[in-house]
Amino acid sequence: MSQERKLRVLVAKPGLDGHDRGARIIARALRDAGFEVIYTGCHQTPEQIVQTAIQEDVDLIGLSILSGAHNYSFPRIMELLKENGADDITVIGGGIFPLEDIPKLKEVGIKEIFTPGTKLEDIIKWVRENVKPRRVDAA
Amino acid sequence: MPPEIKQEGDDSMSIVEKVLEGDVRAVARLLRDIDDQVPSTRSILQQLYPHTGKAYIIGITGPPGAGKSTLVDQMTTYYRKLGKTVAILAIDPTSPFSGGAILGDRIRMQRHFLDPGVFIRSLATRGHFGGLTKSTHDMITVLDAMGKNIIIVETVGVGQGEVEIAECAHTTLVVTVPGLGDDIQAIKAGIMEIGNIFVVNKADREGAKKTVQELRNLLEMGKKFRMETGATNGWDPPVIETQAHKGIGIDELCEAIESHREYLTTQALDELKKIMVKRALHQFSETLKDELFKEMMRRMEKKGMNIDDLAAKIADKEVDPYSLSRSLIRDELKEPESAV
Ligand code: B12
Ligand SMILES: Nc1nc2c(ncn2[C@@H]2O[C@H](COP(=O)(O)OP(=O)(O)OP(=O)(O)O)[C@@H](O)[C@H]2O)c(=O)[nH]1
Ligand SMILES: [Mg+2]
Fold it and tell me: What DSSP line would sit under A4-73, residue for residue?
């Protein structure tokens, strides 16, 4: 009777960005792929996002941002995860990013960035291949 | 924590210690393991159990979108001002099609995310009926042992039969809103009986007074019936109007919760005892069922019996599920036939 772990994902919108259409679509797609998605709405600070990820014990944080403020919030979130010993959580981003920013974000530990027009099935496929629920014995 | 309870060779002891110290990461991970039915959680729960019984458990139920999460957010603010710590279990439905879920109750509770005195966990029903999750009772054990003063459980907001909350909460709030189609019909079946306090939220909307009046009438009828049958008790459920999004009526609501707690802990000790026994019975019988099932599976496997093969035989009508279960249990429990 070994039951499989459910993948848990936090979809969050950092900063003052109110563009939530993409985040909602992603949340729905992840649900339809069989994951448990915690959606916290807009206007989240990096601190709120990290605390939520820890309390909810998620495997993946998906950040959605279209406002251009990612160069502050993304590295800050990675820093806070490390400070809290939670840097085993995978972090990805989606939304609007100038091409030159993407390598810098990956350097601080963001695993992947998805820009407008990305097919939902490609996102799901990436998640399935790259994010595994925490192992039982690592509890 | 007395050291003699340490289990053979595992490091559950340190998890227990961390939980008792209120370590958020350890608690969060343990809750996940419980939800995922990881077997080692049993011995951890066993060690946490003696440390429970201190928290006050509040249940909140009502139709989708009634404002349950917004009320929970406001109640949390109220209790934090009194210096009490709060844990929240917020339950949303699992999609029967994909097995996934969107857990959105946190959206209404953002201002508490950074408060170390508040712990919030979103849960998906995962096919469990009754308004809670299979794991809710055990999670309450953990949050209680962790030292949270108040535990608020928001049930999944569907339909009518979600009454399981009354099996674990000291005080159950039933929330409704004005203008729900056939008005009060929407919360009639089964739900009227479990409410210790009724909340008419969205009282800013038209028809609030009418809804309050209808509820009061229904409660009055229920009371008469109870008196006639001699089953009367000393608590008359109040009906409270709130506007959760503006924080209006929250003081009255929380004062009513405190009155109910007062009532339970001073006047109605037998009722309090009944609630605790009901909860214990639920936990005990669920655990017993689970453990028995697992033990049977283990023994069958050892004998080379595979449950899928047996199911195939049943499907082929070679054997029926009733006599097969009975004979397996009889063999294992070694009891005379009549006893099974
Ligand atoms: C619709 C829209 C709005 C709507 C938003 C409605 C809503 N509730 O979401 C409204 C009209 C409100 C709006 C307002 C504004 N907008 Co506007 N808006 C757009 C527009 C046209 C489309 C965005 C959208 O919804 N796309 C559809 C969704 C599905 O796509 P998506 O979000 O990109 O998501 C996809 C991927 O990016 C990725 N993804 C996204 N998030 C995530 C998360 C994860 C985890 C993953 C894996 C993937 C992922 O996957 C999705 C599927 O492929 C864009 C232009 C554009 N073409 O993108 C401008 C745009 C985003 N807006 C812009 C601006 C400037 C504004 C305003 C400031 C305008 C103003 N001056 O008032 C305001 C600000 C509002 C606010 N409070 O933040 C700019 C941003 C510029 C920048 N980044 O430097 C844009 C780019 C337009 C432009 N070219 O100037 N906007
Ligand atoms: N007008 C009005 N709106 C309210 C009131 N209370 C809450 N709302 C709004 O009602 C909507 C739903 O509130 P929630 O708190 O999410 O309701 P819920 O019962 O938790 O919903 P589910 O968990 O989805 O069943 C939100 O948009 C709230 O802002 C109120 O008193 N008046
Ligand atoms: Mg809710």
Answer: PPPPEEEEE-BTT----HHHHHHHHHHHHTT-EEEE--S-B-HHHHHHHHHHTT-SEEEEEE-SSTHHHH
Distance (angstroms) between ligand 1 centre and the Cα of A96 equals: 7
Looking up residue A108, the CATH number of its domain turns out to be 3.40.50.280
| pLDDT confidence of residue A13 | 97
Report chain A residues whose CB lies below 8 A from the CB of B15. Answer: 139
Q: Closest Cα of chain B to A105: distance in Å? A: 25
Its pTM stands at 0.92
A81 domain-assigned: yes
CATH architecture entry for B52-268: 3-Layer(aba) Sandwich (3.40)
Would the CB atoms of B114 and A54 count as touching at under 8 Å? Answer: no
Who has greater pLDDT, B324 or B336?
Answer: B324
ipTM beyond 0.90? yes
Domain membership of residue A52 (yes or no) is: yes
At A1 the three-state DSSP class reads: coil
Determine the atom of ligand 2 nearest the C-alpha atom of B107. Answer: 16
Atom 13 of ligand 2: nearest residue by CA position:
B67
Whether residue A135 lies inside any domain: the answer is no
Q: Which residues span the domain enclosing A66?
A: 8-130
The Cα–Cα gap between A17 and B145 comes to 39
B100 touches chain A (CB under 8 A): yes
pLDDT in tens, B44-87: 999 999 999 999 999 999 989 999 999 999 999 999 999 999 99
Q: Would you call B32 and A8 a contact, using CB atoms and an 8 Å cutoff?
A: yes
A138 is a domain residue: no
Q: Which residue has the tokens 């259409």?
A: A21
pLDDT band per the 50, 70, 90 thresholds, residue B164: confident
Report the domain count for chain A: 1
- pLDDT digit string, tens, across residues B29-43: 999 999 999 988 999
pLDDT tens-digit map of B151-161:
999 999 766 56
Interchain CB contact of A84 with B (< 8 Å): yes
Q: Confirm or reject: Cβ of A43 under 6 Å from ligand 1.
A: no
